[in-house]
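Provenance

Sequences were taken from public entries as deposited. Structures were produced by running a predictor on each sequence independently, with no templates supplied. The record for Copper resistance protein CopC/CopD from Candidatus Dormiibacter inghamiae is shown for reference.
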Amino acid sequence: MSRRLLVAAVAAMCALAPRPVLAHAQPTGNYPAAGALLSSPPAEVTVSFSETVSPAGRGIHVYAPSGIEVGGQALPKGIQLIAPVEASEPGTYVVSWQVLAADTHPSRGAFSFSVIKASGNRYLGLLSGAELGTTTPLGLALQTLGRWLHFAGYALAFGGAAYLALIRRERRLWRLVLVGVGLLLAAEPVGLLAQLVSLSLDTDTAFSVLASGFGRLLALRIGGALLLWSLLAVESPWPILGLGAVVALIDGTTGHAVSGQPVLGQALDAIHVAAMSLWAGGLVAFLLAPDRRFGRLAAPAAGIAVATGLLLAYFHDALPLVRFLPNNYGWAMALKMTAVAGAAAVAALGRRRLEAYLLAAVLLAAALVVSLPPAQ
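Predicted structure for Copper resistance protein CopC/CopD:
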């Protein structure tokens, strides 16, 4: 019991040290400035970001007062996206942009400027679209759902396999791994739809997304899930656990590098996700086939998840919780921290079913956290 209480205390400490990350490319400025009144049309439009980006589709659309598009294909240059403009009309121009960050997160936005005088523009509605973070509410909801399905599928597949390998061989637990495969496969089309809804539903954007790092990651994840499904025929959990390590490393490539040590952050992310999944998925297997030896899996997995969470918080310069609370990211982080602390506390009391519900909430909150841009 004392060991469990120690894990609960450390997890609570971890919950109080939120992990700020540099996810999502966020605009830091643009030319012309939003609302600017120019004496002549600009030769190009520039949007600057907090990190390097790649254009999604055309990247930047520039709409003249008449509604005609006058911008060319945007090209990245460092942390800037630049589109040539061929315009001569006086009046108000509307600029919309959409990009993919290096970590595959989508971002979009819009602004306007005027030449000689202000006027109407049929695209002014783009300036007042409902936004949550750097996407629409529907885009955020689908991103969160896709990531939660992936996290849950990973936990059930590989956490269940770990339980089979280390705790108890029982045939019905293979169904748990199969459910995990189904969730992993279901996550990818949801994730692709989320990217398109977060940007724009057109052919150019779809091809751009599929050709991006996100598209390659999607292909690797689908391939991993199908390989996992084929490994079920072997009826041995060990090859599945090996594949789980590979999938964790793939997921880690969407993590955020530690300054000066680009591989460290991604490695810690991979270990953190794997450990959390062994804890959550192993717990579901325990509820299906209880065995008192489950602590041999749960305690190390929880400890590693907590330790890597603390290291990530340290390397990413964790700030006080009050730094985050005024925004959606902060509330999502607070939800995750509360669920982690609650799961650790009920684990210490042996309330395993309630612990499982709280860990499901942790995975959902984690999916929401990585779908939102952090506080600036």
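The CA atoms of residues 15 and 261 lie 25 Å apart.
DSSP finds ten helices and eight strands in the chain.
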